[in-house]
Design goal:
The complex is a heterodimer of chains A (about 350) and B (about 290). Chain A has about 350 residues and is α/β, with parallel strands linked by helices. Chain A has 2 domains: about 230 residues, no CATH class; about 120 residues, D-Maltodextrin-Binding Protein, domain 2 (3-Layer(aba) Sandwich), CATH 3.40.190. Helices cover about 65% and strands about 10% of the residues of chain A. In chain A, helix 6 links the parallel strand 4 and strand 5. Chain B folds into 2 domains: about 210 residues, P-loop containing nucleotide triphosphate hydrolases (Rossmann fold, 3-Layer(aba) Sandwich); about 45 residues. Chain B has 10 helices and 13 strands. In chain B, the strands form 3 sheets. In chain B, strands 6-7-8-3-9-10 form a 6-stranded mixed β-sheet, sandwiched between helices. In chain B, strands 2-1-4-5 form a 4-stranded antiparallel β-sheet. At the A-B interface, helix 1 and helix 8 of A face helix 2 and helix 3 of B.
Chain lengths: ~350, ~290
């Protein structure tokens, strides 16, 4: 172990002496923190709602209200606070209404049917629509019914979710970005650890170590320790800057940050062992980087969600982080993710070790 | 009475192939304590592969290697505690200082109180202890590499092209250290393609070509066995300098020398021995560089 710590100590010293890696590793964290704190705390409260009215012509005539008048009525009193305004889009068919919802042009769509005496109101929301928006939409729909009829309609309200149901709450962009920023910190460490390894291989300093009593296992263990310390401490530091280390999630968050650091170091082993130098490391890491960052982009836009996400190792890190940070999830909800993440990390470590061994001896 | 010299390196029939291409073909040799063996051969002859097997970076595909009386495959760590290696590539940590490089490698050997200043002084770098290695010249880096190879006071030194492309001062410093270590009883395994250096530093030399040892003997024996000893005479003839080579073993040489001295004004006259390079070419049909 003494030799492992000697090598790890040397690695940490070298990381901080490499200005580029130091910038990537720590100044970016500060930058991420600044970006996060500069982003607006609140969200745009303009409620965009789509309508499709399936009414008999005579009913409309009877109601003697035009669409413009409805809109005008709904927006009465909202002029002072534009952020809480309601914007209405009119659909000509049910298909158009659903399209508006799915394309995220409106927060919700309302289909109002008045074929019989009792009106039917169907409320369409997409999977990305938070619950309070759904509730607000229902209220607005009732209000419109009242406006149209002049009295509270004895209507049946039915909410239909289009796409995968992702019940949640409306989260400001900057809160969603916390997961993305943490992912960035981890993924940039791919370059830090990868560079540490590729330099040792390319400049043949690894051989100088391996002709001492230090073994290849000790050499790799030292790199793993350095990498995990770097990735974890950076993630943890960013978590502090982002002010997400709350008592109720500190254990879960710390555990997943540690597992995430372990995963990234495993991947960095493979990238580093396959690269000649930093340039080839950057070039060869582009595609893996994009793939690995993808699950955190899905947090920003759930519409990008796909079953294939589960094949991406970082999914098992991003999903729990998103759950803990944005939805107050408990660790018990993500124990299987922790297990899968650990297995992925072990697999990457194993293959990284084999590739490194092949390159060095 | 025959003095038994302890064998620090014993190689028996080792072979190694890269992708079915034989790089080292059943090589055997021994190196005694305090002896310097020069391993000579052109690039691609198999020198580095043999060196890598001797220092435990490659496992021989056949045959066996014993260094310091231990098997390199089974007791690699124990052997590596007692050897020092100086690579051809300047594989130092360039963002660290000279002192930090030495201290780090000493820590891998479990040495806590390394005399860094003393070691740096030996290689003429005592004033550079705190300087970043990246700012060192090639010669300074190579001297530091030698110092690094000595941190654990090795019993066997493996040196791969230690003076290749160096300035005369650095090269001489390194040669002096090699001689000093030899005097202390350290065994030296030297790979080089510099015949002059091998001639100066080695007790015995091995010519390696296409993965095989072509010949292994002392430089003197090789010169005697394969060289041609000639006397070169340059003299004035009709206002021009004429050169003549006379074989020392030839019976007519004495008479011809007498004749030249009597008839012509001699410009210069000296004996010339065959170089190791000449012998290498004679034996392998290849040049070294």
């Amino acid at each position: 172990m003494r030799r492992v710590f000697s090598i790890a100590g040397k690695d940490l010293k070298l990381i901080f002496r490499n200005r580029f890696i130091a910038v990537i590793s720590f100044l970016l964290i500060v930058f991420y923190g600044v970006v996060y704190h500069l982003l607006p705390k609140s969200v745009d409260e303009t409620y965009k709602i789509g309508f499709y009215l399936n009414l008999k012509k005579e009913t409309v005539r009877e109601l003697s209200l035009s669409r413009i008048e409805i809109e005008k009525k709904l927006n009465e009193g909202n002029d002072k606070n534009k952020q809480e305004a309601i914007k209405i889009y009119w659909a000509n068919s049910l298909a158009d209404l659903k399209k508006l919802v799915l394309e995220n042009k409106v927060s919700a769509g309302v289909r109002l049917e008045l074929k019989e005496a009792k009106p039917n109101v169907t409320f369409y929301v997409s999977s990305r629509t938070p619950e309070e928006i759904t509730q607000a939409g229902e209220m607005i729909a009732r209000e419109i019914g009242y406006t149209l009829a002049g009295y509270r309609l004895p209507a049946d309200f039915k909410a239909t979710i289009i796409g995968t149901d992702m019940v949640g709450r409306q989260i400001p962009l900057r809160d969603k970005m916390r997961v993305l920023l943490l992912s960035f910190v981890f993924l940039f460490e791919l370059y830090g650890v990868g560079n540490l390894l590729s330099e040792e291989v390319f400049k043949k300093t690894a051989y100088a170590i391996l002709v001492t009593p230090a073994t290849l296992t000790e050499f790799i263990a030292a790199k793993a320790i350095t990498g995990v310390i770097m990735a974890f401490s950076e993630g943890f530091l960013l978590a502090i800057i982002l002010n997400v280390l709350k008592t109720e999630i500190i254990f879960s968050l710390t555990l997943f940050l540690a597992l995430g650091a372990f995963l990234i170091v495993g991947i960095a082993f493979i990238m580093g062992a396959l690269s000649r130098d930093f340039i080839t490391l950057v070039m060869s890491s582009i595609i893996p980087f994009v793939i690995l960052i993808f699950p955190s982009l899905v947090v920003l836009d759930p519409g990008l969600s796909s079953p294939l996400l589960k094949a991406i190792p970082t999914y098992y890190l991003i999903e729990p982080l998103n759950g803990f940070l944005n939805y107050g999830a408990k660790f018990s909800e993500y124990t299987s993710s922790a297990f899968v993440l650990f297995l992925f990390s072990l697999a990457f470590f194993f293959f990284g070790f084999l590739i490194l061994k092949r390159r060095l001896v | 009475m025959k003095i038994m010299v302890k064998k620090e390196i014993m190689v028996d029939g080792i072979s190694y192939s890269y992708n079915n291409k034989l790089a080292v073909n059943r090589i055997s040799f021994e190196v005694g304590q305090g002896e310097a063996l020069g391993f000579l051969g052109p690039n691609g002859a198999g020198k580095t592969t043999i060196l890598k097997m001797l220092i435990g970076l490659l496992v021989p595909q056949s045959g066996s290697i014993c260094v310091l009386g231990k098997d390199i495959v089974k007791q690699r760590e124990e052997i590596q505690s007692g050897i020092g290696v100086c690579f051809e590539e300047k594989n130092l940590y360039e963002d660290m200082s000279a002192g930090e490089n030495l201290t780090f490698f000493a820590s891998l050997f479990g040495i806590k109180n390394l005399n860094v200043d003393g070691l740096l002084e030996r290689v003429g770098l005592s004033a550079k202890r705190k300087d970043r290695v990246a700012n060192f010249s090639k010669g300074m880096k190579q001297r530091l590499m030698i110092a690094r190879a000595l941190v654990n006071k090795p019993r066997v030194l493996f040196l791969d092209e230690p003076t290749d492309g160096l300035d005369p001062v650095s090269a001489e410093t390194i040669r002096d250290i090699i001689v000093e270590e030899k005097v202390k009883g350290v065994t030296v395994f030297l790979t080089t393609h510099d015949m002059m250096e091998a001639d100066k530093l080695s007790d015995r030399v091995a010519f390696i070509n296409e993965g095989k040892i072509a010949v292994l003997d002392t430089p003197d024996n090789l010169k005697h066995q394969f060289g041609r000893r000639v006397l070169k005479v340059r003299y004035y003839l009709d206002g021009e300098v004429k050169e003549e080579e006379l074989f020392l073993e030839n019976q007519q040489t004495a008479a011809r020398v007498k004749e030249i001295l009597e008839k012509y004004r001699v410009f210069d006259m000296h004996t010339e021995e065959a170089t190791l390079e000449d012998i290498f070419i004679q034996l392998t049909g290849r040049k070294l560089a």
